[in-house]
Amino acid sequence: MPLVRHALVALGFLLIALTPVVGPIPGPGGIIVFGAGLSLILKYTGWAKRLYVRLKRKHPNKGRWADWSLRRASARRREEIRKQGQAEN
């Protein structure tokens, strides 16, 4: 399994590296390629998760948008909790 993990992380970095090449093509191709690469890296590496959490703490609005765009389950849970808290007030 570690070989598969390393291959998926390498694929994630490759996708991020390809983003500037795909970016000029009409449509949202560059954003999708970057998001796919980032999600692979975040899923399979601990250091990237820690860096991402640090970024989200420093810039909560950017982190919220990034979570939404990556369709992270943790973002959906936090959003539901936030909505419940607003409904109670």
SSE blueprint and pairings:
Blueprint: H1 2-22, H2 29-44, H3 46-58, H4 60-70, H5 73-88
Helix pairs in contact: 1-2, 2-3, 3-4
Whole-number mean pLDDT: 84
Number of strands: 0
Q: Helix tally? A: 5
Question: Nearest-angstrom radius of gyration?
Answer: 15 Å
Domain count, please report it.
1
The major β-sheet equals:
none
Give me the secondary-structure category: mainly alpha
List keywords for this structure.
0% strand, globular, mainly alpha, 89 residues, single chain, 5 helices
Q: Would you give an account of this structure?
A:
The protein has 89 residues and is mostly helical. The protein has one domain. 87% of the residues lie in helices and 0% in strands. It contains 5 helices and no strands. It has helices at residues 2-22, 29-44, 46-58, 60-70, 73-88. Helix 1 (2-22) packs antiparallel against helix 2 and helix 2 crosses helix 3. The longest helix has 21 residues, at 2-22. The radius of gyration is 15 Å and the shape is globular. The model has no long low-confidence stretch (mean pLDDT 84).
What's the short version?
With 89 residues, the protein is an all-alpha fold. It has helices at 2-22, 29-44, 46-58, 60-70, 73-88. The protein contains 5 helices and no strands.
